[in-house]
Amino acid sequence: MEFMDELRKRLVIVPAFNEEKSIGQVVDDILGSGLELDVVVIDDGSQDRSGEIARAHGARVIKLPFNLGIGGAVQTGLKFALRHGYDVAIQIDGDGQHVPSEIPHLLAPLKGREADVVIGSRYLGARHYRTPFMRRLGMIVISAVNSILIGQRITDNTSGFRAFNRRAIEFLSNHYPVDYPEPEAVVILGRNGFRLKESAVKMRQRLAGESSINSLGAVYYMVKVLLAVVVDVFKTYPKVG
Amino acid sequence: MSFRIQIFAVCGSLLISAFIFELIRKRKMLEKYSLLWFCAAVVLIVLSVWRDLLEKTAALLGVFYAPSALFIIAAFFAMMMFLHLSVVVSRLTEQNKNLAQEVGILQEELRHLRQNSGTRE
Fold first, then answer.
1. Helix (H) or strand (E) holding A103
2. What pLDDT sits at residue B120?
């Protein structure tokens, strides 16, 4: 079937900021997944050897001249994907908490043309993932607000494990949010006519590094995200085909 | 409005205008960013020289003491300036980000090309 040959050119985008302890393993896992994936690591101005290690493990590495933050790093990967004609881009964290063998769960809805963007969710389905209480509460509130804004329930708005089709890659290359990229991208995509879908995935506890959201700051983070997503509703973007 | 205040106001406005002009002349400020400053300086000079206009403007704004109106107008221009600068900084930040991304991508593409053509770096 022609169907099977679609979405053959796939790029995995791994944003990495000082992830030398985990990045080698992450690249190995992706390349060893047997899924025909190209890997580009976006070294977001790391002070350690993240970039060199990723390259030694067989990834292509884009070294940003200075730190842009996770949003700017992911967008770099999407621009690269667009320029090199990839059909699918998969975003995966460089700290080892996402499991590359779960990537097929993200690809299935894209292949079936049920969605433009697929989000790997920790909270969907029976799979269990432990989250500190305050953070979980914040996630629930963000999820509720986002659901109202886009008219669809997304359980894991901060998941950085996502897959994008060509149309989404093109849009996000130009308009990737930089303040709170994950939850904001959900709202921007949802309100601009992109079809989102969540797939249940299992995630590991991190191999190294810290969450960008610590438990004390969970409430503060939630408030800032809510402000950002509400503002996003009023932003206008050129229509995409 | 006392004569002394008027002298101060005129001197102050002229000084600012001269300073802006000097900055542009030495090419330390682009003309397009100086426009708002010039507008502010001209308005303040006119109002401090032309007492009648200031009195009328103050009455219009409901300000009893005319020189206070000068402060309000100056504050308004300062506010506009801050907003203008925020817009400029935002644009520069965006452009800077795009350039950084472009540089990173081009470097990797160049490296890849060189590797495949067997050229030494």
1. helix A103-111
2. 56
**How many Cβ atoms sit within 10 Å of the Cβ of residue A191?**
16
- Tokens 């700290």 locate to A95
Residues 67-106 of A with CB under 8 A from B: 68, 72, 75-76, 79-80, 83
Gap between the Cα atoms of A63 and A107, Å rounded: 27
Handedness of CA A22, A181, A45, A51 (dihedral sign): positive
Q: For residue B80, what is the enclosing H or E element?
A: helix B66-117
Strand partners, A15: A42
Question: What phi, psi does B12 have (nearest 5°)?
Answer: -60, -50
Whether A206 shows a pLDDT value over 80: the answer reads: no
Of A40, A60, A72, the CB nearest to B101: A72
Mean pLDDT confidence for A193-213: 78
Tokens (6 digits) for B22 = 């000097």
pLDDT at A2: 42
* Least CB–CB distance from A60: residue in B100, B101, B108: B108
Residues A78-137: pLDDT tens digits? Answer: 999 999 999 999 999 999 899 999 999 999 999 999 999 999 998 887 656 667 778 888
Q: What is the pLDDT of residues A154-200, one digit of tens each?
A: 999 999 999 999 999 999 999 999 889 999 999 999 999 999 999 99
Relative to beta strand A162-165, strand A60-63 is: unpaired
Q: For an interface test with B, which of A52, A66, A76, A84 has the most B Cβ atoms less than 10 Å from its Cβ? A: A76
Yes or no, beta carbons of B104 and A76 under 8 Å apart = yes
Name the residue in chain A with its Cα closest to that of B110.
Answer: A62
What local confidence, expressed as pLDDT, does residue B50 receive? 87
- Whether A139 contacts A131, CB under 8 Å: yes
A62 and B CB contact within 8 Å: yes
DSSP state, residue A204: P
Nearest by CB: A63 against B97, B104, B112:
B104
